[in-house]
Design goal:
Blueprint lengths: L2 H33 L12 E7 L3 H13 L6 E7 L6 H6 L6 E5 L11 H7 L2 H10 L4 E4 L4 E3 L3 H12 L3 E10 L2 E5 L2 E2 L3 H4 L9 E2 L6 E3 L20 H12 L3 E11 L9 H7 L1 H7 L5
Parallel strand pairs: 1-2, 1-4, 2-3, 6-11
Antiparallel strand pairs: 4-10, 5-11, 6-7, 6-10, 8-9
């Protein structure tokens, strides 16, 4: 990256961050005024929108995410799967699942969005289909599961119960990972940490688990994932950027100290996340190459 492009990215990111800082607390206040009375804790079995952004990973979607969602003890959900202009068998496989709660939408194109490096695909790859799924959500609550993640059977039930009993707008939990055969429980990270926020922020109850542990009220869907997160020098992953904005806007957050999700290596890989992408950068760049 040249010095000029680096400077432009810094300026753009700072202005974008300022925009979020100024507008999202106001939008949160307006959303609460309009919708919060519909989220009383005594309401029984509200509809949850579960969503998955995916791109040409039909088999792992069928092996992990879909069985995890359909196997939930909490049954009142819709499941929105958004393909990022998939051209494999994803749509065919999903259409063969006999469950009326599932909706599949395939984006009509996959235009250029950022410089095509393995790192950028990791940082911002799911943003466009994830934002489309948020537009399609009709439930009172929203939960995300990526195509390669696995939930415990009581995932939705536990998170929803905890959120409603404590009047939280956003809850998350512990999750378990596996790398090189070693299992580890992640007990959440502080949203005020340097990694997430760039600087310390004075907030209580700021713990956030991984994306696959999130459940939040649907009136927060005005908060979209940031397609320009890759431009930043801090807080660069799309979900970390999102989580930090949740905190800074003043959303009431809660954390469940229980493992409710498993984030595991994909087939033929031993590591996860950015490590897995960089270990096989050429293959990842080929797989995620923009087609329009």
């Amino acid at each position: 990256m040249t010095r000029i492009s680096s400077l432009l990215n810094t300026v753009f990111s700072n202005l974008n961050s300022l925009r979020y800082t100024l507008t999202e607390p106001v939008l949160l206040w307006l959303a609460r005024e309009r919708y919060e009375r519909g989220h009383f804790s005594e309401q029984q079995d509200p509809l949850i929108t579960v969503y998955t952004p995916t791109y040409n990973r039909a088999q792992i979607l069928m092996d992990r995410a879909i069985p995890s969602v359909l196997g939930q003890s909490y049954k009142n959900f819709e499941y929105v799967i958004v393909g990022d202009h998939c051209n494999d068998e994803t749509e065919k496989f999903v259409s063969e699942v006999n469950d009326p709660r599932i909706r599949f939408y395939n984006l009509p194109n996959r235009k250029w969005r950022y410089p095509e490096t393995a790192e950028n695909h990791w940082l911002a790859g799911p943003v466009i289909p994830a934002n489309k799924a948020l537009e399609m959500a009709t439930g009172q609550w929203i939960a995300r599961i990526d195509d390669d993640d696995v939930w415990t059977t009581d995932h939705l039930e536990v998170l929803l119960s905890y959120a409603t009993k404590n009047n939280y707008e956003f809850v998350s939990s512990c999750y378990e990972t596996e790398e090189n055969g070693n299992r580890k429980v992640h007990r959440g990270v502080s949203a005020t940490s340097y990694y997430t926020a760039g600087k310390k922020v004075s907030k209580k109850n700021d713990m956030i688990g991984g994306t696959s542990t999130w459940l939040y009220r649907s009136y927060l869907r005005f908060m979209k994932y940031n397609i320009n997160c890759w431009r930043k020098s801090w807080n660069r992953v799309n979900d970390a950027d999102f989580g930090n904005r949740i905190l800074k806007s003043g959303v009431r957050m809660g954390f469940v100290p229980k493992v409710l999700s498993y984030v595991l290596p994909r087939p033929n890989e031993s590591e996860m996340g950015i490590k897995a992408y960089l270990n096989d950068a050429e293959k990842k760049e080929s797989h995620y190459r923009f087609t329009d």
